[in-house]
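Posting for a labmate who doesn't have an account.
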Amino acid sequence: MRPHVIIRYIGMVMLFNAAFIFVSFLISLYDRDAGQLPLLFSFLITLLLGVFPLVFVPKATDLSNKEGYLVVVLSWILSCFIGSLPLLLYGGEFTFVKALFESVSGYTTTGASILNNVEALPKGILFWRSSMQWVGGIGIVVFVLIILPSLGKAQMTLSKMEISPLAQENFRYRTRKMLNVILVVYLGLTVTQVILLRVYGMGLFEAVNHAFTSVSTGGFSTKNNSISFYNSLGIEMVIIIFMFLSGIHFNILYSSLTLKKNNIFNSNIVRYYFFSTILGILVIAIDLHGKIYQSWWESLRFSAFQVVSLATTTGFATTDTAIWPPFTIIVLLFFSLQCACAGSTGGGIKVDRVVIFYKAFKSQILRLQHPQAVIPIRIGKSLVSDDVVNSVTLFIVFYLLLALLGTLALTALGFDMLTSFTAAIASISNVGPGFGLVGSMSNYSVMPDLALIILSFLMLLGRLEFFGLLLLFMVKSWR
């Protein structure tokens, strides 16, 4: 283990964060708002943290797996603290814990907020909130790897640590090509959405912010009432489409655009993702009709937006789902658990794991009927190994266990069952809004500091898919 090498790579991540803080500062400077000094001081501090390791630590282009894990995990943790600096220095509703919670929620693209008045923030701070989500969408370390092509073997090691093995399955390229594909798709989706939002009447600043937080499936908005502020069908349709697209594996999107075989029409995972989402929209619309909304059109409109928003872990809102019937809440909770595809910016268990788990369950039933039969598990034409099936099962069990522990912790702090359970699920799935006191038109300001710390930890666990972060606490295994 070489601590100096780890520090050097973390320094690169700090420089990348500093660049976005500087852009946010320029926006505040142009607007002459109250975010100028907080962003300037934060930029200088982050710049120093990034420059010193690069100046005083010798260059190294090789990393062991252990070093790679530490670089990725520590980069995420330190970035969350750095991200809270502009918010803390600005003040307002932000205390230290609340600023850290907002930053963790930003980088992990959870979208949970403690703010009661988002619109009171200066434009520079608003842009910084959105930037955290855009950077966190495909991963802080991935961004650094994309812009620094000369890292040698370290590039491959870090990409393996940052991108989950399940997500890497559909990337059939070398590391550099894989990173370029991610960048092309991510930038393409973002720029296209900005243009379309402008076409439907959204201002440039707001269009950029909402494109950042849609494509990253983050959900931070510049408005207190989220997307419902605009009351525009055109804007809602654009956001629904880009939330949904951002929930698909980026290589499958790229293959579809380049007319290759591994596209959205040939993928079993995408088909399930599409049809399960459509089914969810229809089922909820039927339940809402006559109970909450009197017209079928309203029922479909609000159902479609909320289902796609939660199924992709974005968390935007166009209505208050806290008043929806219990049946719809349960259906929405299912989508908050399942979420989008591996290799996308979405969080949660992932559609891929749900499909593999279902096929493994079906295979086990058939084995009980035919003990001598060999029943392989396939996704499309690809054979799924027993190791993958075991890791998927372990992941889902551990996921639900952590959700249970989070619920117990929040109920111990005095919150009701619905608030506690949905807040824990929304945090670990990186969804953002839950139900009860933390519904789609509410926020997390009601939570005490201890609850915010617990939820911040769950957000990081969910974003890093548990094992990377938990390795930090298993000291003996590093020897």
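Reply:
Got it, the structure tokens are right above this. The chain has a mean pLDDT of 88.
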